[in-house]
Specification:
CATH architecture of the domain at 10-196 and 235-261 and 317-332: 3-Layer(aba) Sandwich
CATH topology of the domain at 10-196 and 235-261 and 317-332: Rossmann fold
Distance between the termini: 55 Å
Number of strands: 10
Shape: globular
Strand order of the largest sheet: 3-2-1-4-5-6-9
Radius of gyration: 20 Å
Length: 355
């Protein structure tokens, strides 16, 4: 049970990322010195939003060049830190070489950061950004979980290098983290396991990221004939940042935390937007039948294989988030607020144009 000294610097890996941005904001507002590990500290345009946050808050930010695949490259950034947030991991679903593009950076990156923690005597706690993808692959997996609901006890056993390799990468990376943690006794490990993260990005450039694809398709007419009822969990990026912050500084935080506000599906995400945006955007109003998806899905989107459609469409997604509510005091943002705030960002950035 480690108490973290807020006068010491805190390391955030992948600091330019979507979730990391909101976490860095929170740390800076609390007057903390953030050691931001980034791929290229020279790329000022990538750091602009973080510099602006630092200028407006009582904390300060220092940048360190680091690389997930380079051993020891986090040593300088970690020196003197009691708390480490490891948020850096590739989030892409369309890859040519899953081993090279997903598995290696996720697993070796985690190993790199945690072995550096082993060699850095000041470190007391590491918070790793894992994912609900380390708990399940497809919505149908919820039915096979005890009581039909995902909990922190459940691990993903159905993904592989060839099927849903992103989920496989998150599973292997988190397992590696626990293995390294259990082999020592100085620092404790907490993992945050978010479902699909939405909400406004602090860095407008990140609206091109994978997280926003579903929203773009809801608003650009791709799904105007109907949206597939693909069961998913959804959580607001601001709640995920809050979860990370509390996981770092609450001495009693321990183990894994499912970080998911809502059990939902693609159609519900679309219909939530109808009251505010339905007149101007071709949002879906009904469910697309599963048989039709089986027919055209594989032709329209290479991720929509028949197996994926079979295992996710018309299957409810359900996870228990009571642990994080009780232990980390997380109150989840209403679905409508998250959806409208995110959709508005896409409109403001001209990624979606009203018809």
């Amino acid at each position: 049970m480690n108490q973290i000294d807020k006068t010491k610097p805190v390391l955030v890996t992948g600091a330019t990322g979507y979730v990391a941005g909101w976490l860095v904001k929170k740390l800076l507002e609390k007057g903390i010195t953030v050691h931001a590990a980034v791929r290229n500290p020279q790329k000022q345009e990538k750091l602009q939003h973080l510099n602006q946050l630092a200028a407006k808050s009582s904390g300060s930010i220092k940048y360190f060049k680091s690389d997930l695949l380079q051993e020891g490259s986090y040593a300088e950034a970690m020196a003197g830190c009691e708390l480490v947030y490891h948020t850096a991991s590739p989030f892409v679903t369309d890859v040519n070489d899953p081993q090279k593009d997903l598995i290696d950076p996720a697993v070796k990156g985690t190993q790199n950061v945690l072995e550096t923690a082993n060699n850095t005597p000041s470190v007391k706690r590491v918070v790793v950004t894992s994912s609900c993808a380390a708990i399940y692959t497809d919505a149908i997996d919820c039915q096979n979980a005890p009581g039909g609901v995902l909990t922190e006890e459940v691990w993903n056993t159905t993904s592989s290098l060839n099927y849903q390799p992103y989920a496989y990468s998150k599973t292997l990376a988190e397992k590696k983290a626990w293995e390294i943690n259990k082999a020592q006794a100085r620092w404790d490990l907490v993992t945050i396991n978010p479902s699909l993260v939405l909400g406004p990005p602090l860095n407008p450039q990140s609206v091109t990221s994978e997280s926003f694809n579903i929203l773009r398709q809801l608003g650009d007419g791709t799904m105007k004939m109907g949206a597939p009822k693909i069961g998913i969990g959804l959580v607001d990026v601001r709640d995920v940042a809050e979860a990370h912050y509390n996981a770092g500084f609450k001495p009693t935080a321990k183990g894994r935390y499912i970080t998911s506000g809502h059990n939902t599906n693609f159609l519900e995400l679309g219909t939530t937007l109808l009251p505010k945006y339905g007149k101007k955007f071709p949002l879906p109003k009904k469910a697309l039948p599963k048989w039709l998806l089986m027919l055209v899905g594989p032709m329209t989107n290479k991720l929509f294989t028949r197996k994926f459609i079979r295992n996710n469409v018309n299957h409810a997604w359900a996870a228990d988030h009571s642990k994080i509510k009780e232990e980390l005091d997380i109150e989840f943002t209403p679905l409508k607020v998250t959806m409208e705030d995110t959709f508005q960002t896409l409109v403001d950035e001209k990624i979606l144009q009203p018809k």
